[in-house]
Amino acid sequence: IAGAGAGLELRLQLVLRDPSLPVTEDDVEASKAVALAAAKAAKTKKVMTLTHFGGPGAEDEEAPASSSTLQNLLGMRETAAFVQNGLGFVLDAIESYKNLLNWTHPKKTAMVYAVAIAIWLAFVILPGRIIILTIGLFEFLKKFIFGVMPPPDPNVKNGFILDNLVASIPNDEDLRVAYTNEANALQAAKLSVQ
Questions:
Q1: pTM for the structure as a whole
Q2: What was the pLDDT predicted at 7?
Q3: Which of 67, 177, 192, 193 lies 20 to 30 Å from 113, alpha-carbon distance?
Q4: CA distances (Å), 95 to each of 90, 132, 164, 179, 189, in order?
Q5: Is 118 helix (H, G, I), strand (E, B) or coil?
Q6: ∠ CA 20-25-31 to the nearest 5 degrees?
């Protein structure tokens, strides 16, 4: 393109190992090393902004106009890692919600269904205006009912009530890792029967 300036065309190719070959100890060790390095990098990494170099909200407001290609590539890599970690967090939360409702942890699932049935019964039996009035009165009168509340502890995260419940429910990957030995023993038993 005439007058467009310098450009860079980057072509990448991902070469995967043959899935029909057995996994070697070197593959397992390399995978563990990458997982540990990614976890360590995620813990030490500060919050990044998803803006282009020099854009509003960027870490360096006055980025030089002649920033190198290497800096741009490193910035894209960090942004891609940030997006990937964010998507992983969201998908893990969705899997935990799914496992909360499919009896992965029977006591907690029974509690969730019991609360849902109790709320349904309350809405069936009581008029809606009474429920809304009760909730509103509780919000305004809870200081008088429970007394003066102590100031919140800054070390305690005060989040949504379901956060701890969902955090205690494993996602699918946690279940796979937890039951690997049992699955291998079951597979070996099936093979020995045949």
A1: 0.51
A2: 62
A3: 177
A4: 9, 32, 15, 17, 30
A5: helix
A6: 85
